[in-house]
Amino acid sequence: RLTRMARMVRLLRALPELMVLIKGLAAATRSVFFTFCLLAIIIYIFALVFVHMERAGFLSASASISRSFRSVPAAAAFLLLRGALADYAGEIERMGDFSMAMAVMLFLFVMLAALTVMNMLVGVLVDVVGVVSSVEKERMTVQWVQMKLLEMLDSTGFDDDRNQKISKAEFQALLVNPKAAKMVQEVGVDVVGLVDFADFIFKDGTEELSFSDFMALVLQLRGSNSATVKDIVDLRKFISMELQTVTGGLARIVKDDLAREMQNACS
Q: Which residue in 158, 191, 217, 218 has the most C-beta neighbors within 10 A?
């Protein structure tokens, strides 16, 4: 038994996706439990209704069906097996004719494997397909915008020197163009904010941006992007540099004022 357990542990380590599914199943245990509780409540309510209808004579025409609703437990078993588990009712009933314990084990297996795990598989597939669809849609949109902007640069004369690089003037002229602005908006970027951001982009002696750098900048400024640790570190660095610049400027102003006051006092 210990050897078998060790083999299972090695299998889980070799297949981390299997461990993820098991952890997901464990995390969903509470929700699955209350779902089964809701199913039990629904079955119990309808079992009571069918029992009262049988006693009122609504099922007197069929003796076989009437026997299934003589009592609440019999009605609940019928609704569970023939209603919720109709595909497995025959096998469970035949197993119960030989061994009730085996029937209970088969019932638990069906509830765990056929209902829980298979429905979880459907959920995983839907989630994976949704993620892949979103990624592919995003990639196609970015490629389309990149191709159209590059064609616009070549055809409209925004790139005056034809070097496929964007200067500050070309940057502002491109974003003011309605077609280019609409394309940039389609990838989720605020065009007005991007135009106002031009002074910051070309601040540190950057005269021109390559088209790939321009697209990378546009994609970084999408409103749907989440803030990362790098963004916080860059913001902290920028604020520190600006504070140092402001502090140095104030110190020079104060120093000049003091020197001027001392000169006036001496004179």
A: 218
Phi and psi based region of residue 139 (left: phi greater than 0; alpha: psi -120 to 50; beta: remaining): alpha
Least confident interval from 13-17, 41-45, 72-76? 13-17
Q: Name every residue whose Cβ is closer than 8 Å to that of residue 171 and which is 6 or more positions away in sequence.
A: 198, 201, 202, 209, 214
For the segment 40-52, the average pLDDT, to the nearest whole number, is 88
Q: Give the whole-angstrom CA distance, residue 122 versus residue 130.
A: 12
One-letter amino acid of 117:
V
* Most confident segment among 36-50, 196-210, 221-235: 36-50
For the chain, the distance separating the N- and C-terminal CA atoms, rounded to the nearest angstrom, is 101
pTM: 0.48
The candidate with the shortest Cα–Cα distance to 149, out of 138, 163, 137, 164, is 164
